[in-house]
User: Fold this.
Amino acid sequence: PDMAARKLKQPLHFAFSYDEEIGCVGVRGLIAELAAREVKPAGCIVGEPTSMRTVSGHKGKLSQRCRVRGLACHSGTPHLGANAVEAAAEGVAFLKRMARRLRDQGPRHAGYEPPHTTVHTGVISGGVTLNIVPEECFFDFEFRYVPGAGAQDLFAELRAFMEGEVLPEMRAVHPGCAVTFERLSQFPGLHTDDGHAIARLSMQLGGGGDAGPGKVHSRAPFTARKYKFAPSIPTITSAAGSGALRPPAALPGRPAASRTASTCRPLSRSSAKPGLMRIGASRRGA
Assistant:
C-alpha cells in the first residue's frame, strides 16, 4: 500500500527465488525469463542483509562432489579391501594443504574478506559399521575465488592427485575401485563498477552504512551476494539486517516481510523523485 500510494517515476519490480544455498536453483528460471523480455531492468538490488551497506562484488564459486568406491571386507583383514573412507580422507587432506597454500601464497584482492581464494570441505559420508572396511564414501567441497584467479586449475590438481596417487593403490587391490566427480554448482566472480548509478543509488538509500557515506563495499562474505541475473543488468546487494549465520532457534523474531519493507520504503520514496532513479532508459525499471 505504501508504494501503491506513491506516484513512481519509474516502476519497481520484485523477483523471488528459492534454494539459493544449494546451488541457486530458483534463479535459473528467472534468468531465462529476463533474457526473453524486451524491456530490461536498469539495475537490480539483491535484498540480502548487509546492514544497508552496498556490496558491489562477489567471489566466483565452484563446488564439486567426489565419490570414492573401494572394496569392502572385514576389518580384521583390511589388506584384502580398499578403504574408501581413508582414500576420501586423503583427498580432503590434500584440499586442506591447498587452502593453506592459497592463504599464505595465493593471489589476493583487498576488497574481499578473506582477501584470498578459499577451499572448503563441507560434507563427508561413508562407511557402515566399524568392523567393515568401507566400500563407499563421498565428500563435497568448494572453491571461492577472487578476481583474477580461477577454480579449474585447483580442481585439476585434486583430480590429478586422486587419480594419479590414491586410485592406483586402491586398484592394486581391486580393479573395480573408482574415483568420480560431480559438479554441484558453479558461478563466475561478478562485479559492478563502484561508480555505477545503481551503486550510487544504493549508497544514497543506505547512507553509506557502517563504512561512512559514499563508500562502496566490494568485499563479499557468504551473506553478501551479488548476482547478475541477465546480461547488461548491473547488480548490487543491500538490505536491512545482519547476515550473521545463526541456528534457526536463534533467528530474530521480526518477520521477514517487515525487514523487506524497511528496505523498500526508502527505495519507493527515491523512485518518486525525478532524476534520482534515472539510471537507464526512461522505460526501464529497477
User: Anything to note?
Assistant: The longest helix spans residues 84-105.
